[in-house]
């Protein structure tokens, strides 16, 4: 089975279970969670099912295409189901069969691994899933996103597709992975890895990036004030990626780090609150009408009680 | 139903995978909570020892209780109403208050009787309450009890609103063979449980409560952890098949025990070439990262083999073994890459990289810290009288101690900090005491792990911790409650153990002063003046001294500790020795007399001081009139000489025994001598004599701090 076959198998599997098949977001992100189809849709009472493959950039993990496992950019196959159904673990185990892993002939273990993203003000409880000792998936019940505690709980399933594909293909170097029957992962991506690593570690202009961080932050706030949540969030994403580049460039001191992460988190939290308010104004269109009215009444009661914006604030 | 008309109740909570670290506590908590609730609900007799069995696997918590009554016994209650004075008027006729109370209890006024209450007589009524059937009580009782269990971390799922360790997916509640109708978190109990994932069995229907283990075993679930523990002895056979022996690791055994429902033991191998890696790296990769046991040959050296305990009875296609082998080889290849890369550059040269690694915003970089540690280690070596070779080697080690923070290996294996630096230093051929000091300098971490092997390591470890304590507390970081982000309590406990249990005699006050001096005139925003800070750190350390002596493996009584600390603790090794001597003596008969005499003398002296008397420093022998005071004086002088010699030899038990042996003379003195004599010179002389005895008493411990049982 090739890398491409794996992506197709997962896509088909989750499409058959009612997921919206989305395309990757067209901006740099560090993880599939940052895609608005996860970050925002995890919030609020509306149901949601989505699956997509997200190219995820981690500049500090860049190794110039020399390391057999580590990449500047890897792919995540991401599923978000809200609320997670009672048999979500069984569905997940079925998904392994879609690419030829029969749980009865292997050892599948769910080992505690709680997830936290300080830049997104998000946290969840869950496991890393191990297949015969190898980590293949992060399985997380979100508890909080954008500083907002969640009431209807989404399940996020993130497959590490390179790793699974390497296992299936029996190769030990990611660049040897067959992308399809005619071309390898290395042939498609290696030069890209080299250039991105070089840029992140050596070439990137620190002053330019620092200025971009400040300007994207300001633009995000300005745009949010105009109630344009998605464009505002995109500037927050650019802040996040700019931060990651600065970090790889060695331009973030240990003390500055929490301050910069805090600035991105405050943006993300403001966006989350604004998005939820917007959905309430739209009367939660994905809910049946009676449930929508209930949800709006509940939100109103909570915002009165909290005295703040809808959805409350991150407890700190 | 059993012969006595009692029943057996089985409860199983089916969950998604519960973290291994929480499982054992959860099993015990659930069993204890259920037993307690059944007793308080009178479904179990309190006076008979209950038969409670509990079970746990990653996917279930279960408890089975035998001897449950069919229903609660009938109960007679007395319900009290208004005071007699308001219930009856002047003529003894019932008022509306009495009538209302009777009506509310559904009885006639004539059924009311009088009973004494806290504020006078009240009216009351006696009612009998029929007991409820067990199933009904359980249905009401169990949900709250289950959801009331606490975990280190809980979560919500689905529609939210409920917190538990992981989502609850099924429930079994059987009273003998009958389902108890109860619902928790939207899940309704039945007799259906689940087999091991991948067993192919699926849903298992339990005929009755007693069939639990057997039916589950049929589904490849060993519900009783002790059964799994027994089966896990298979790791030794697996190691033997691999040609070696398991390297014992109790904590790994506990971890793995709680990760599987059916333990299968399988052996595997990795390429021999990785045996070139340091054993610490191999062990960390295999045990910590992959939860596999390492295997050693007859000579104790690791073999290129491992034993895994997997959640499956067998490995039909060899896929599980192949998977583990592949992952382990991959991880070891990573580690070898770092090991080779790191060693291209001398360890000491990494100090430069540490200039850019912040230790703390107000306290500079790790390079700054390493320089301070070098200064401090030199000073500590002086104070301990080991300034020569030991001191020199310790200073060299302090300079190298933090360099591994800038290596790839340490970044990949943060649990090996210090160890990595030590290994690299060894490769570079530095003296053994130097690399071992680097290797060991994060020890000790708790109450009973080992101290660094050499005096050099002890000095570096002390310097590291003292620098943390003085620096971080100096800029206002103080642990509060459970918040101790810089682990200052652990640092302080480390200092205390190094001094109390190590071979070096180092004065605490001087060591703290030296730590503050090592900061020199660095631009640190100190929050308090130097002496204030040192006082604060001293008090903080004293808390850890008490903690060590109370909770450490010696476990002394708190009043013994107070008594010994009151006699000073600047030399903690000496303090610890005095405390051991005191605790050993406590059981003996003259000990309580000693404590009593000590208290009596202290009271007399402090009263005298309160009235403004200045007690002379010397006893004038010519003023000793009475036989008893002469004898006490002579005995005290003798004891003083002997005590000084014994203490110098470190024989604190002998010192205490000698002091205790003064008892008869002290008793005789109090029996026959009037301390507060009319003549002032006699009075002062007697007080001086008592002060001398008190001085002896206090040299080892302040016995007045001892709490003697039966007195107060």
Polypeptide structure, described:
The complex is a heterodimer of chains A (316) and B (712). By secondary structure, chain A is of the alpha+beta class. Chain A has two domains: 3-201, BirA Bifunctional Protein, domain 2 (2-Layer Sandwich); 204-306, Class II aaRS and biotin synthetases, domain 2 (Methane Monooxygenase Hydroxylase, Chain G, domain 1). Helices cover 44% and strands 19% of the residues of chain A. In chain A, helix 6 runs antiparallel to helix 7 (229-248), helix 6 runs parallel beside helix 8 and helix 7 (229-248) runs antiparallel to helix 8 (256-281). The model of chain A is unreliable at 307-316 (pLDDT under 50). With 712 residues, chain B is α+β, with helices and mostly antiparallel strands. Chain B folds into five domains: 6-72 and 133-218; 75-129, no CATH class; 225-342, no CATH class; 349-555, Orthogonal Bundle (Hypothetical protein af1432), CATH 1.10.3210; 578-705, Orthogonal Bundle (Isoleucyl-tRNA Synthetase, Domain 1). Chain B is 48% helix and 14% strand. Chain B contains 27 helices and 18 strands. Chain B has a five-stranded antiparallel β-sheet, with helices on one face. The model of chain B has no long low-confidence stretch (mean pLDDT 91). The chains are: A alpha+beta (316), B alpha+beta (712). Chain A binds chain B through residues 68-69, 83-84, 86, 89, 93, 103-112, 114, 125, 127, 131-134, 141, 143, 150-153, 167, 172, 250, 253-255, and chain B through 16-17, 19-21, 58, 153, 155-161, 166-167, 169, 197-200, 259, 290, 308, 310-312, 315-317, 319-320, 322-324, 326-328, 330, 333-334, 356-358, 361.
């Amino acid at each position: 089975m090739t890398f491409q076959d794996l992506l197709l198998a997962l896509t088909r599997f989750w499409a058959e279970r009612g997921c919206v098949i989305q395309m990757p977001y067209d901006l740099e992100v560090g993880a599939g969670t940052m895609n608005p189809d996860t970050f925002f849709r995890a919030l609020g009472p509306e149901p949601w099912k989505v699956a997509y493959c997200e190219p995820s950039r981690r500049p500090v993990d860049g190794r110039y295409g020399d390391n057999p496992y580590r990449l500047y950019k890897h792919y995540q196959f991401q599923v978000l189901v809200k609320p997670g159904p009672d048999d979500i673990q069984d569905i997940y185990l079925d998904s392994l069969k879609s690419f030829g892993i029969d749980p009865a002939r292997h050892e599948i273990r769910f080992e505690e691994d709680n997830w936290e993203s300080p830049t997104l003000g998000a946290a969840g409880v869950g496991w890393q899933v191990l297949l015969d000792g190898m980590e293949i998936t992060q399985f997380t019940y979100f508890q909080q996103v954008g500083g907002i505690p969640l009431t209807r709980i989404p399940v996020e399933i993130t497959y590490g597709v390179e790793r699974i594909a390497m296992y299936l293909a029996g190769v030990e170097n990611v660049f040897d992975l067959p992308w399809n029957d005619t071309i390898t992962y290395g042939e498609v991506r290696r030069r890209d890895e080299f250039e991105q690593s070089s840029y992140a570690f050596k070439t990137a202009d620190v002053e330019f990036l620092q200025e971009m961080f400040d300007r994207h932050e300001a633009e995000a706030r300005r745009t949010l004030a105009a109630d344009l949540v998605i464009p505002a969030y995109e500037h927050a994403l650019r802040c996040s990626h700019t931060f990651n580049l600065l970090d790889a460039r060695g331009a973030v001191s240990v003390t500055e780090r929490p301050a910069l992460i805090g600035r991105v988190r405050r943006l993300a939290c403001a966006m989350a609150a604004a998005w939820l308010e917007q959905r309430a104004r739209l009367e939660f269109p994905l809910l049946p009408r009676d449930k929508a009215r209930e949800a709006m009444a509940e939100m109103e009661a909570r915002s009165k009680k909290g005295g703040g914006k809808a959805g409350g604030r991150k407890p700190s | 139903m059993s012969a006595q008309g009692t029943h057996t109740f089985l409860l199983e909570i089916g969950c998604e995978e519960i973290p291994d670290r929480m499982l054992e506590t959860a099993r015990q908590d659930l069993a204890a909570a259920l037993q307690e609730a059944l007793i308080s609900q009178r479904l179990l007799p309190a006076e008979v020892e209950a038969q409670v069995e509990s079970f746990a696997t990653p996917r279930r918590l279960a408890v089975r209780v035998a001897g449950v009554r069919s229903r609660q016994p009938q109960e007679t209650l007395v319900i009290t109403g208004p005071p007699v004075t308001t219930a009856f008027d002047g003529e003894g006729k019932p008022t509306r208050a009495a009538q209302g109370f009777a009506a509310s209890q559904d009885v006639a006024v004539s059924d009311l009787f009088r009973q004494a209450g806290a504020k006078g007589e009240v009216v009351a009524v006696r009612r009998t309450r029929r007991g409820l059937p067990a199933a009904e009580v359980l249905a009401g009782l169990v949900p709250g009890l289950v959801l009331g269990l606490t975990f280190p971390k809980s979560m919500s799922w689905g529609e939210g609103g409920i917190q538990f360790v992981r989502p609850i997916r099924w429930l079994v509640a059987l009273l003998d063979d009958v389902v108890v109708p109860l619902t928790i978190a939207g899940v309704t109990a039945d007799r259906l449980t689940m087999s091991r994932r991948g067993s192919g069995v699926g849903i298992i229907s339990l005929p009755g409560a007693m069939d639990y283990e057997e039916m589950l075993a049929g589904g490849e679930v060993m519900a009783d952890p002790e059964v799994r523990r027994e089966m896990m002895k298979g790791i030794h056979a697996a190691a033997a098949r691999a040609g070696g022996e398991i390297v014992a690791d109790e904590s790994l055994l506990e971890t793995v025990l709680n990760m599987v429902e059916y333990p299968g033991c399988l052996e595997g191998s990795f390429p021999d070439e990785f045996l070139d890696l340091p054993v610490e790296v191999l062990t960390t990769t295999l045990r910590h990262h992959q939860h596999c046991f390492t295997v050693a040959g007859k000579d104790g050296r690791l073999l290129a083999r491992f034993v895994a305990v997997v959640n499956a009875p067998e490995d039909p296609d060899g896929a599980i073994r192949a998977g583990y082998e592949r992952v382990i080889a991959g991880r070891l290849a990573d580690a070898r890459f770092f090991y080779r890369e790191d060693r291209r550059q001398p360890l000491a040269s990494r100090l430069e990289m540490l200039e850019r690694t912040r230790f703390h915003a107000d306290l500079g970089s790790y390079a700054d810290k390493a320089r301070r540690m070098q200064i401090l280690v030199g000073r500590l070596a002086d104070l301990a009288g080991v300034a020569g070779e030991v001191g020199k080697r310790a200073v060299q080690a302090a300079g190298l101690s933090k360099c591994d923070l800038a290596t790839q290996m340490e970044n990949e294996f943060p649990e090996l900090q210090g160890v990595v630096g030590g290994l690299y230093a060894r490769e570079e051929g530095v003296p053994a005491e130097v690399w071992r000091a680097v290797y060991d300098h994060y020890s000790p971490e708790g109450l009973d792990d080992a101290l660094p092997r050499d005096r050099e390591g002890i000095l570096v470890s002390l310097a590291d911790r003292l620098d943390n304590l003085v620096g971080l507390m100096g800029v206002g970081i103080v642990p509060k409650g459970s918040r101790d982000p810089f682990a200052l309590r652990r640092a302080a406990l480390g200092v205390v153990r190094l001094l109390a249990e190590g071979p070096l005699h180092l004065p605490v006050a001087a060591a703290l002063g030296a730590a503050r001096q090592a900061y020199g005139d660095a631009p640190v925003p100190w929050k308090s003046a130097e002496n204030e800070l040192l006082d604060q750190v001293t008090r903080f350390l004293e808390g850890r001294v008490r903690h060590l002596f109370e909770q450490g493996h010696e476990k002394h009584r708190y009043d013994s500790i107070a008594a010994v600390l009151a006699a000073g603790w600047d030399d903690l090794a000496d303090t610890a020795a005095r405390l051991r001597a005191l605790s050993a003596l406590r059981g003996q008969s003259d000990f309580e007399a000693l404590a009593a005499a000590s208290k009596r003398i202290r009271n007399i002296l402090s009263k005298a001081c309160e009235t403004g008397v200045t007690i002379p420093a010397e006893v004038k022998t010519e003023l000793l009139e009475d036989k008893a005071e002469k004898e006490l004086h002579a005995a005290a002088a003798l004891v003083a000489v002997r005590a000084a010699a014994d203490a110098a030899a470190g024989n604190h038990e002998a010192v205490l025994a000698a002091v205790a042996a003064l008892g008869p003379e002290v008793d005789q003195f109090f029996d026959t001598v009037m301390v507060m004599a009319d003549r002032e010179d006699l009075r002062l002389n007697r007080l001086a004599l008592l002060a001398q005895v008190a001085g002896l008493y206090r040299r080892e411990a302040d016995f007045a701090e001892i709490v003697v049982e039966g007195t107060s």
